[in-house]
Amino acid sequence: MTLHARPATEADLAQIADIAAAAFHPDTDAISRHLFPPHLRPQGALGDEEDPARSWRLIRKGMKLRAENTVLMVAVDDALGGKVVGFSLWDTPTDGDEPRSAVSSQAPSPALDEAAFAEMHHALDQDVQKHFGQGGIKDVFRESCPARVINMKV
Q1: Residue 106 burial by CB count (10 A; 0-12/13-18/19+): exposed, middle or buried?
Q2: Which Gene3D superfamilies match (predicted)?
Q3: Residue 21 near residue 57, CB atoms below 8 Å
């Protein structure tokens, strides 16, 4: 098995959504279960119909792929014909003065509990501000990396 990493493309989004939906499925992940409660699932959302949580993740990952301040990478398995077997997503450092939220804008979904999403958004932003200051995640790289690492040439 030979794996390699590369920047994600639009063509990878369905596989990325599959991986995210499997890793953070409401049946096994407490946060996803809170965000996608059973009472908001559309009638007949079993069987061959699209999983609402997966659809939401597909939209959000597409938004992240197109965002200027994020990096979305995939791990592909050459032995499986280049199938995406993993992904990573992170926010890039910024020099601006505008605070940045730990959670970006949300994607619409009838199965998403909007209040639970807002609660999660608020809790994450409070935690980030507690650890990195009022600038939010825009300061995460500056605060968590020693100067000698930042100045290293790669």
Answers
A1: middle
A2: 3.40.630.30
A3: yes
Q: What is the mean pLDDT of the chain?
A: 77
The residue behind tokens 């301040």 is: 69
Sign of the CA dihedral running 100, 86, 56, 58: positive
Where helices occur in the chain by DSSP H, the ranges are 13-23, 30-35, 52-66, 114-132, 140-144, 147-150
Q: CA–CA distance from 154 to each of 70, 77, 144, 151 (Å)?
A: 20, 26, 18, 9
Cα 31 to chain center, whole Å? 13
Q: Kindly report, residue by residue over 40-84, the tens digit of the pLDDT.
A: 777 655 554 568 788 888 888 988 888 888 899 999 999 999 999
Sheet containing strand 70-77, strands side by side: 3-7, 70-77, 83-91
> In the beta sheet, which residues pair with residue 61?
none
Rounded mean pLDDT of 26-33? 86
The reported pTM is 0.68
DSSP state of 38: G
> Whole-angstrom distance between the N-terminal and C-terminal Cα of the chain?
27
Residue 7, C-beta contacts closer than 8 angstroms, at least 6 positions apart: 71, 72, 73, 74
* Confidence class for position 148, pLDDT limits 50, 70, 90: very low
